[in-house]
Amino acid sequence: MFDVSIIGGGVVGGLILRELTKYKLNVCLVEKAGDVAMGASKANSGIVHAGFDAPVGSLKAKFNVAGNKMMESVCADLGVKFHRNGSLVVAFSEEDFKTINDLKARGEVNGVEGLEIIDQPRLREIEKNISDEAFAALYAPTGGIVCPYELTIAAIGNAMDNGAKLFTDFEVVDIEKHESGYIVTSKDGQEIASKIVINCAGLHSGEIAKMIGDSDIKIGARKGEYILLDRESGDFVQHTLFFTPTKLGKGILVTQTVDNNILLGPTAEERNDSTETSANGLAFVIEKAKKMCKNLPLFNTITSFAGVRAYSDKHDFIIEESKKAKGFIHCAGIESPGLTASPAIAKYVVETLVGGMLPLEENEEFNGIRKPDYFFKHLSMEEKNEIIKKDPSYGKIVCRCEQVTEGEILRAIHENPPAKDIDGVKRRTRSGMGRCQGGFCQPYVAELIAKERGMSLTNVTKNGKGSNLLTGVTK
Amino acid sequence: MKNTYDIVIIGGGPAGLAAAISAYDNGAKDVLILEREEKTGGILNQCIHNGFGLTRFKESLSGPEYAARFVQGVRERKIEVLTETTVLSLTKDKRITAINTKDGIFTLQAKSVILAMGCRERSRGALNVAGTRPAGIYSAGTAQKYVNIKGYMPGKRVVILGSGDIGLIMARRMTLEGAKVLAVCEIMPYSSGLKRNIAQCLDDFDIPLYLNHTITKIEGDKRVTGVVVSKVDENKRPIAGTEMHFDCDTVLFSVGLIPENELTKEAGIELSPRTRGAIVSQTRETSKEGIFACGNVLQVHDLVDFVSEEAEMAGRYAAKYVLEGKTEHDYVEVLNGKNVSYVCPQKVDKNLDEHVKLFFRVTNTFKNCIITAKCGDKILAQKKKQIAVPGEMETLMLVKNKLSEIDGNIEVSLEVQE
User: Fold this and answer.
1) Most exposed residue of A349, B110, B137, B333, measured as fewest CB within 10 angstroms of its CB?
2) Which one of B283, B298, B326 terminates a domain?
């Protein structure tokens, strides 16, 4: 019997899981995919929002501003890259100019520090490729960037190191109430019993709620398409550039990523059935990015992708105990700025909601520090040589584009949460993330996975069950 | 290990091997080749089809056989080779940082460096092809590695985008291994592959080639289940209503090669936006003195025979640089004239008393044409062609006694004859 089980291995579920391990609790997380961070936490903009956008008094505003302040230290502990690059909401018209002033006022009420309206000369000085049409911007120095799946993987990995259990390929099909809690059942008949259940199922949180007879959670879905540029163009912009929101929506953003790529997107299309990209969607992203910036280095495009984000019909976060089922907590409708808010949501859910149901006794053995996945790359030459002397696999470069060593890949295959397939290795080590998109390293990585997991090469998958790389052997 | 060398060659593929032999034979004996794979030979090791060496050796060799001749040459000369060693950085002062399992990370100082890193394949991502991102999407070279080196099949029903040589070779290879190749699609009105490969790899196996067609959508959740192929207009935009659907489990991309010049850029060497390789003179010296480039890292060649020829030139001049030191240059530029997409070398040193071979590509398919290298109104070299295509590199020879007549930039152009 677990004290707490979490449904959904995204960034919110992951950080709650880690927060729970700070206390003497027996906790687990179930995830329907073969790896964690496979939903919205895999493919979003990776922005740590300052907090001027959320309506005054909303949960979004509260958790955004608090989460922004916590993000830096959470990332430092978890060995996750975080960069406070600052964000700019760019005005292209008089109407936009009025809006950014309103946003500044709203941000100040929300408690955002350092907001400033900057004029065209200053804007051009700090962003050399900004469009000539842009004439002012709202500058938010507290805006930042983070990699959402890196944060999720690190949080869950650290929680596992502190005793939490992870069950992947666990698609919840039924939840039953018992006197002492709930029994959660998977598609293939596995059962997990816990006193408390936390619903962090993202797009599926409405379906999960219905399983306990709660139909208050209504979730919509929005698909967003993105284009990613090679890090060779990494200094194309320095800040996160937003269009001024209009009645027609927020528009796309142009931003640096923590891995020094340039990210363009997302579109916003009402659908949840697929993460496929479309010719129209990608053309829209390009058109808008060209409106924001001149000299857009599209020749350095390395990939495009799409993600689906969940939102609730209330257009605010739902973070509360179910009104229909005691001991069942919802974290639903966590749309933007959900990533930014996630550390603050985790703290609130554990200390206030779980704490109101169970006694929280501090776990003295909790160690919140995690060695970064990418630790090797950032060591000095002397430190690297010390490691290579002990473990020569760190002297073998497998991914030439991102300079990832065999040692780092082996570590990703064995550490919590273990990488089981090509994309799992890619998200943890960046092997295959670069300009050749795995053209050179994929066969090596596949062989390492096969060897370390004791399987045949034909059983190695790209991305979970059924995504086998190879169909057989040659004649 | 030693940490200074006269010449360090980055890359032990066909270019690096030929450059090493040539440097050695021209008097530079203190040469080191750095190779990231387990053995030298580069991409030739996985090119088990024949047709290599027809120009150079007048016989048809497989890739490994062609490579073996140069590997043997390097071995006979006892030229030092460090395999499984990746170069991490290069400075303009010719300091190289590299890594391997035995020596860790180390730096070397060279008097001269020859860049021979080759190229990589353009990926699906670079093209922004719409659709899903399942397993079963490979660049043709990656598929070739799985089949020829690892002995595994990447799929059973295949559609290939791009009719470059690797795509054509893989169409045949997959067929011979029992897969069904349903179509080769080419967005251009012509194939960028060699004519002999169209005949031997597609026609002989009844594999249809769809010119002016591209893949507009990839389908499938976990593994590819199909693709949509559309005809394109003259602006390469898909024409609505022309969609064809293919049920397949594999898509191979053979959509161009990109020289791997990350180290080159780091050293501050000037690159050509046309070739995406370094800007060089006929000696293959880059904008940084004593750093040379050759093979596919400089310009993507059609035939390895030309790679060897170019690498020998780079090796010879690198040896000369090491032995004789810096010489005075008198450069003129070589410009891309009408119907010419690029010329390599991009500059010619008039002070050198040797013939200069200009390599270039034309922008389209031309019949009955005349190709000219001119300086002002002076014709330096000229030749007639019945047919010129972008997929086959053209050459023009500037004979050495013409060099003294040059008093300005050289322009290479193609005119169609009536």
Assistant:
1) B333
2) B326
- Tell me, yes or no, whether A298 and A447 share the same domain: no
Among B141, B220, B124, CA closest to A275: B220
Alpha-carbon gap, residue B88 to B286, rounded angstroms: 20
Same domain flag for A165 and A253? no
A260 vs B: CB within 8 A: no
Same domain assignment for residues B3 and B84: yes
Q: Which of A53, A418, A75, A421 lies closest to A243 in space, CA to CA?
A: A53
Three-state DSSP at A265 gives: strand
**Same-domain check for residues B311 and B363:** no
Let me know if A378 is a catalytic residue.
no
Domain ranges, residue A184: 2-41+149-219+314-354
The pLDDT assigned to B192 comes to 83
Please judge whether B155 and A471 are an interchain contact, meaning their C-beta atoms are less than 8 angstroms apart.
yes
What CATH number has the domain bearing residue A380?
1.10.10
Note the residue count of chain A.
475
The residue type at A230: D
Which residues in chain A have Cβ-Cβ distances shorter than 8 Å to B101?
A: 388, 392-393, 395-396
8 Å CB contact of B150 and A400: no
Same domain, B244 and B307: no
Residues B223, B309, single domain; the answer is no
Q: What digits encode the pLDDT tens for the residues A394-437?
A: 999 999 999 999 999 999 999 999 999 999 999 999 999 999 99
List all residues 6 or more positions away from B381 whose beta carbon is below 8 Å from its beta carbon.
B358, B372, B373, B396, B397, B398, B399, B402
Q: With an 8 Å Cβ cutoff, are A440 and B151 in contact?
A: no
Structural domain tally of chain A? 3
For every residue of B74-97, DSSP letters joined together read HHHTT-EEE-S-EEEEE-TT-EEE
Residue range(s) defining the domain that contains residue B33: 1-121+256-326
Name residue A322's amino acid.
S
**ipTM of this complex prediction, to 2 decimal places:** 0.95
Say how far apart CA A181 and CA A2 lie, in whole Å: 9
Distance separating alpha carbons of residues B153 and B44, to the nearest angstrom: 20
B39-94: pLDDT as tens digits: 999 999 999 999 999 999 999 999 999 999 999 999 999 999 999 999 999 999 99
Q: What is the structure's pLDDT at B290?
A: 97
Residues in chain A closer than 8 A to B217 (CB atoms): 276, 279
Task: Give the CATH number of the domain where residue A27 resides.
Answer: 3.50.50.60
The last residue of one of the domains, among B204, B238, B255, is B255
| Amino acid A378: pLDDT | 83
Token couple for B210:
């769809």
Among residues A49, A204, A239, A330, the one annotated as catalytic is A49
A128, A161: one domain? no
List chain A residues with CB under 8 Å of B133.
275, 305
Expressed in angstroms, the distance from the first to the final Cα of chain A is 52
Q: A290 and A327 share a domain?
A: no
* A385 near B CB under 8 A: yes
Nearest-5° angle of CA A457, CA A462, CA A464?
A: 100
- What is the per-residue pLDDT across A145-181, written as a single tens digit (0 to 9) for each? 999 999 999 999 999 999 999 999 999 999 999 989 9
Distance in Å, alpha carbon of A359 to nearest chain B alpha carbon:
44
Query: Are B200 and B287 found together in one domain?
Result: no
Mean pLDDT over each residue of chain A, to the nearest integer: 96
Task: Pull the structure tokens for residue A160.
Answer: 């596992």
What is the per-residue DSSP string for B285-298?
B-SSTTEEE-GGGT
A112-116, A449-453, B188-192, B222-226: range with lowest mean pLDDT: B188-192
Beta bridge partners of B369: B385, B416
Q: Which of B128, B177, B248 to mutate to test the interface with A (most CBs of A within 10 A)?
A: B128
Angle of helix A422-429 relative to helix A406-414, nearest 10 degrees, comes to 110
